[in-house]
Amino acid sequence: MxxxxxxxxxxxxxxxxxxxAAALPDFLGFIFYPKSARFVGNEFSAEQLENIxxxxxxxxxxxxxLPEKVIETCRKLNFQVAQLHGxxxxxxxxxxxxxxxxxxxxxxxxxxxxxxxxxxxxxxCDYFLFDTKGHLPGGTGQKFNWTLLKKYTGSVPFFLxxxxxxxxxEAIRNFEHPRWHGLDVNxxxxxxxxxxxxxxxxxxxxxxxxxx
Length: 212
Prior knowledge:
Number of strands: 10
Distance between the termini: 6 Å
CATH superfamily: Aldolase class I
């Protein structure tokens, strides 16, 4: 297994951010989609991010937002990554990438997902994020059938997302794919929306890094 990158998403509370950041995940994600239960809110500011170590990349998560707003928000908060969780086109992704941001493009996977559509995104995205298909954009708290990813033969590395929790270490240990780059965790580690159980996150990250 290659060294997996770990992204903890759906952060909001400054004290909770500091606690999770102490576990040194590779990425911390902040959701700028007002309909999400984990929306950072309209008053979110760079001051709330001051205690994040520089080794952790900060990710802004957006859903069908104006590309100018995505770029402006990421620059204002000194984010390195934009994660696009809606129906953003390859042209949209190209515009975000041209601004200098790293681009994560999320796709909701179920049995009918057409992996052929990903070819148009290959040159304009740095990473794909494969999540569980639900009725709304964003997390469902459920896992999809990871064996479906055998159909993915593209070159873009990807993150596994969707309902991953502390009890999934065995499944993670047994999963294999040449383009698998990381894990994206969120609701499986929450006390309430946007509030992570810091101990669970720290133990999980430690165990993931020990099995590699």
